[in-house]
């Protein structure tokens, strides 16, 4: 198959999946009665259940199994939070507007869709403008030329007001992380001021995307599952023994920059030893995440970790890798794994005045020399007026940083770009011995951040299959039993009161066992099987006349992927199917 044919087939699969999703209640565009609104999707009964199962699986692995706490913070936060985090000034995408039809587009997407550039987002705006001109790129909507059009930075924040009247400005959070960071002074108390500790959150985030596209892959409202792991940068190291043998496909920056570079397979342990993954904490969570993705149904032949290039990495991140899945012949980001340093906590400490540190107790008290200043305000006040306090802070910082600056008769400080000399005798400079029981440490943060919606889409896309059964074409979703929205369908063979009564009782017993069950008596049995195949239901139970007329007549249990059928005792169904869902028993191993 040629690349063009492959792309066409992939596109066809995506179109079929979106249609199936709408028809079977996975997801569809919101507010359809009013013409729909771009970038907003409703998850239907099946989609909400699948999404919930993925979230539960994430919670079990990254909160419960790792011993981390979970919170649920508001989605609207006051403006100062985002002034501190930098989102008001730097949370932008590149926008280009068509001169003819007036449609706005992501400039980097226009470049990526029509050139060989794969990561145009990492390019500076002037270079993107040059590429648009060089390739004579056109508007995706009307075909008008975009060369010469300005590319502007567009802030993605959704603004709102908090309270009536002269209200306070607020914003819908663009990431769940800030809800964790701003509560750190209280959360550290719940962790008994002991590092390391982790805080997770699953919730909605909002970004006013310029051009949302590809159904739930890029939307304006989406769900994130994030872990903020707080560590002592001088003392805490992860135990890599549990993940060092995990095999991963990596696409590091060095390979992306090489002319003939490509992804390759290795293990987490080898990648750390060879310096490919430089941060051991990032490596640890990459190792934890890979088997989790496999467990929820991501095809590992279409999965990789790609390292951020220098131009696309956030300025505060020392290293960042994305979990990517192949969809329609393209790679999409599902999660980011970043070492954020102490940027977030330091910024919130600076802007709020609260303490975003953890007190680290020494094993034994230490006697240390501290340089201090006690300036004469009677001198600084007349000399500097309203800037006197700023001068004090400059002197304190200088004494802590470089005490030798006070060796002469005067010390120089910079104030608003202007140099000033202050007599050392007026600074109250002294070096004193102090006994300290510990020190305040600003933790560093390691962040695995998962896009739940993109994970759900990937799971559905990788699960989509077409085959032929008994001479008829069939579509089915090969969903893992752990995440499938419905685990078992129960059918009476025909519309018969006795059959329906027995089938209803079986469905109730399976629900009592904690299994998700659908009951269906509409249409012939073949059509009911096909419906459940499209939904992705792993098993179907059919009640026939032998079930009610014979002692221990049993029922027929059909497995979705193979369509194989086995006869099982009714009384054993709850226990048997529960064991299969838990992974303790395989359908092929069942004895009739």
From TrEMBL:
<dbReference type="InterPro" id="IPR045864">
    <property type="entry name" value="aa-tRNA-synth_II/BPL/LPL"/>
</dbReference>
<dbReference type="InterPro" id="IPR027031">
    <property type="entry name" value="Gly-tRNA_synthase/POLG2"/>
</dbReference>
<dbReference type="InterPro" id="IPR004154">
    <property type="entry name" value="Anticodon-bd"/>
</dbReference>
<dbReference type="InterPro" id="IPR006195">
    <property type="entry name" value="aa-tRNA-synth_II"/>
</dbReference>
<dbReference type="Pfam" id="PF03129">
    <property type="entry name" value="HGTP_anticodon"/>
</dbReference>
<keyword id="KW-0067">ATP-binding</keyword>
<dbReference type="InterPro" id="IPR002314">
    <property type="entry name" value="aa-tRNA-synt_IIb"/>
</dbReference>
<keyword id="KW-0648">Protein biosynthesis</keyword>
<feature type="domain" description="Aminoacyl-transfer RNA synthetases class-II family profile">
    <location>
        <begin position="15"/>
        <end position="481"/>
    </location>
</feature>
<dbReference type="InterPro" id="IPR033731">
    <property type="entry name" value="GlyRS-like_core"/>
</dbReference>
<comment type="similarity">
    <text>Belongs to the class-II aminoacyl-tRNA synthetase family.</text>
</comment>
<keyword id="KW-0436">Ligase</keyword>
<dbReference type="InterPro" id="IPR036621">
    <property type="entry name" value="Anticodon-bd_dom_sf"/>
</dbReference>
<dbReference type="GO" id="GO:0006426">
    <property type="term" value="P:glycyl-tRNA aminoacylation"/>
</dbReference>
<protein>
    <recommendedName>
        <fullName>glycine--tRNA ligase</fullName>
        <ecNumber>6.1.1.14</ecNumber>
    </recommendedName>
</protein>
<dbReference type="GO" id="GO:0005737">
    <property type="term" value="C:cytoplasm"/>
</dbReference>
<dbReference type="Pfam" id="PF00587">
    <property type="entry name" value="tRNA-synt_2b"/>
</dbReference>
<dbReference type="GO" id="GO:0004820">
    <property type="term" value="F:glycine-tRNA ligase activity"/>
</dbReference>
<dbReference type="GO" id="GO:0005524">
    <property type="term" value="F:ATP binding"/>
</dbReference>
<dbReference type="InterPro" id="IPR002315">
    <property type="entry name" value="tRNA-synt_gly"/>
</dbReference>
<keyword id="KW-0030">Aminoacyl-tRNA synthetase</keyword>
<keyword id="KW-0547">Nucleotide-binding</keyword>
């Amino acid at each position: 198959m040629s690349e063009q044919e492959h792309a066409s087939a992939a596109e066809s699969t995506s179109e079929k999946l979106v249609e199936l999703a709408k028809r079977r209640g996975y997801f569809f565009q919101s507010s359809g009665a009013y013409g729909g609104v771009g970038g907003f999707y409703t998850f239907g009964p099946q989609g909400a259940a699948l999404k919930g199962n993925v979230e539960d699986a994430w919670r079990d692995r990254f909160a419960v199994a790792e011993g981390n706490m979970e919170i649920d913070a508001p989605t609207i936060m006051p403006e100062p939070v985002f002034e501190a985090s930098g989102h008001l000034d730097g949370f932008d995408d590149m926008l280009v507007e068509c001169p003819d039809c007036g449609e706005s587009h992501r400039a980097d997407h226009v470049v990526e869709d029509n050139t060989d550039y794969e990561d145009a987002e990492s390019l500076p705006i002037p270079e993107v403008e040059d590429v648009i001109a060089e390739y004579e790129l056109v508007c995706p909507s009307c075909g008008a030329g975009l060369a010469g059009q300005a590319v502007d930075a567009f802030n993605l924040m959704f603004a709102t007001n908090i309270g009536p009247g002269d209200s306070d400005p607020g914003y819908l959070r663009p990431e769940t992380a800030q809800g964790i960071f701003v509560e750190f002074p209280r959360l550290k108390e719940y962790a008994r001021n002991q590092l390391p500790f982790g805080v997770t959150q699953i919730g909605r985030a909002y970004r006013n995307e310029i051009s949302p596209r590809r159904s739930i892959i890029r939307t304006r409202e989406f769900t994130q599952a994030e872990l903020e792991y707080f560590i002592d940068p001088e003392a805490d190291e992860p135990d890599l023994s549990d993940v060092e043998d995990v095999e991963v496909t990596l696409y590091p920056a060095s390979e992306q920059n090489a002319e003939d570079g490509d992804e390759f397979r290795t293990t987490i342990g080898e990648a750390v030893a060879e310096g490919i993954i430089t941060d051991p904490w990032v490596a640890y969570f990459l190792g934890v995440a890979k088997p989790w993705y496999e467990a929820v149904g991501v095809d590992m032949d279409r999965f990789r970790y790609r390292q951020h290039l220098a131009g696309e990495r956030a300025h505060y991140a020392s290293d960042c890798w994305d979990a990517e899945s192949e969809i329609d012949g393209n790679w999409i980001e599902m999660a980011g794994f970043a070492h954020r340093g102490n940027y977030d906590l330091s910024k919130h400490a600076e802007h709020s005045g609260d303490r975003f540190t953890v007190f680290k107790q020494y094993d034994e008290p230490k006697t240390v020399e501290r340089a201090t200043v006690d300036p004469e305000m009677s001198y600084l006040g007349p000399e500097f007026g309203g800037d006197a306090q700023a001068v004090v802070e400059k002197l304190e910082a200088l004494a802590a940083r470089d005490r030798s600056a006070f060796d002469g008769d005067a010390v120089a400080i910079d104030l608003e770009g202007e140099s000033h000399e202050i007599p050392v005798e007026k600074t109250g400079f002294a070096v004193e011995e102090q006994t300290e029981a510990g020190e305040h440490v600003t933790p560093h943060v390691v962040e695995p951040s998962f896009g739940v919606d993109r994970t759900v889409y990937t799971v559905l896309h990788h699960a989509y299959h077409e085959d032929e059964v008994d001479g008829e074409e069939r579509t089915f979703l090969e969903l893992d039993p752990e995440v499938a929205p419905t685990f078992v369908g129960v059918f009476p063979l025909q519309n018969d009161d006795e059959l329906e009564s027995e089938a209803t009782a079986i469905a109730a017993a399976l629900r009592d066992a904690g299994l998700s069950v659908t009951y269906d008596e509409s249409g012939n049995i073949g059509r009911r099987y096909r419906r459940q195949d499209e939904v992705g239901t792993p098993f179907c139970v059919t009640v026939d006349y032998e079930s009610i007329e014979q002692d221990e007549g049993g029922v027929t249990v059909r497995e979705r992927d193979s369509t194989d059928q086995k006869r099982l005792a009714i009384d054993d169904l709850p226990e048997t199917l529960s064991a299969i869902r838990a992974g303790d028993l395989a359908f092929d191993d069942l004895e009739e």
